[in-house]
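Limitations
The structure tokens in this dataset are predictions for the assembled complex, not deposited experimental models. Users should treat interface geometry with appropriate caution, especially where small molecules or nucleic acid strands are included. An illustrative entry is reproduced here so readers can see what is and is not provided.
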Amino acid sequence: MAAALTAAKLGVEVTVIDEQRTPGGQIYRQPPPEFEVADWLSSSAYRAGKALLNEVGSARGIHWLSQASVRGLFKPETDGGRYRLAVSSPNGAEFIEASGVLLAPGCFDMPVAFPGWNLPGVMSAGGIQVFLKSQQFVPGREICFVGSHPLMLIVAEQVIAAGGRVKEVLFFQRASSALRLLGNPGLVFRHFDKLQQAAAAMRRLRTAGVRVCFGQAIVQAEGDDQLDKIVVGEVDHNGLIRSESRREIHCDRVGICYGFIASSELARQAGAKGEWDPDRGGWIAAHDPWMQSSLPGLYVAGEITGIGGAEVAEQEGRLAALGWAVQAGKISPAHAEEKSGSIRQRLQGLRQFANLLSVLSAPGQRFLGQLLDDQVTLCKCEEVTVGEFKAALNEHAHLQTANAAKLMTRAGMGLCQGRYCEHAVRRLLSEARPQGIEVGGFNARFPAKPTRINDLLRNKPSN
Amino acid sequence: MPRRQNKSVVRGEPVTVLVDGQEVMAHGGESVATVLLASGISVFNRTRKGRPRGPFCNMGTCFECQVLIARPGSSRFEWRRACLQQVQPAMKIRTGELISSADFSGN
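Predicted assembly:
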């Protein structure tokens, strides 16, 4: 939104291709237009985003395509040529050309596999939040949250505010690691307001009768056709779950919250360069100081550059718009430099906090690995278990990359296109193969999401 | 039971849909996922191996929440993600059916 507004104000012709019905992405996911919600996202944390929504609603010069999804991003065939985007909407498929593209595709909740993780009732915490924020709906009678990310506190509060019941919020980090962070006065001083928010959320939850625990992790979700209870265990100082310390918590909905994975498939498809960092979103795109990727004319902003949250996305979007405006001759480099000063300053502090948060809330590969018992489903779409995958790796020593393993085992071939198993596949492969082997990720190909062949065959008249 | 939050919320017009042959009351703008959970249904589909599945991400990336949907007046059922699909009057929904990825309709 910020990028579109900044660019449009400088005279750039802007088209926004938005998957949702209304602007706002996932963080400011609006209730349906048919609803009237008196105090939607009333917390001060959402104020900036709501202001953007207002501005975007009345802005001129922005062509907003709703319910339109980019399935393919093709870089220009010649220098100075245009990008082609294959776009799908309820009206069918079409190609849109652009000389400059900004990718701000956001992220999705990190899937963490453990026994029973596919049982109805097990959801991502973010998914629960969407029910609350957008549908004004409490998706369970007794809800628990487990994971490592403080977003859990926010969603738990939102459940309570909506009249729902939260039994427990369980962080796998032990209290001692949180205290170590607080022992750093510089850190505390610089990010005091955010730490205060978290502490206040914890207090309010406790007042509402919610147990907030540290050093506990989910080991199993149980139920017949629907979640009936979760089993949790204590985490020792090595980050390992002690098998003799289990207890059960009855609940019909559990929100898993271990962090986020950047939606990077379009950047990868186009051939942009990136690096792998599972603690900061997985594959994240490389970029220059103006947010331009390794491909000229292709800009990146938000989670795709490293998980950073809404404010980082907003500021990076502004930078990208300025960068593009210079390239398009709409603003002089000096003028852009001047405008970018305050943005960069703000970004520095925001990114620092985001990196800190990533470090604190990353579950870590060893922790996640211990949940992968042989009977756990690794690829939920194709129903490939961890045991089956490991057996294939044992039997076929030549399988050294994620793509090779996918071809042999079908892990990654289902409808989610590997979004929900890629990290675990990489982890298992790295553990089973000698150090130094570059296992890589799944190749990103067109289409980025399942697409009807019928839509591709029908020619939509170009506008 | 999962329930709608009603404090300071005015929902869209009442809408009747058919879920597994039964009439269910919903509101304009609601997602099929909301309506199914609100009526006590948790098994949205079953995998090829018969395992139960329900919503996970609620944002269209995981494909766990698919249900069979026929538009009003049509008898052709297609798989749709319940979290992204809005209810329409007289929409027909079938839950708990066996998924086959070859049947996926891409929406």
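Some entries come with short summary sentences. For this one: The first strand of chain B starts at residue 3 and ends at 4.
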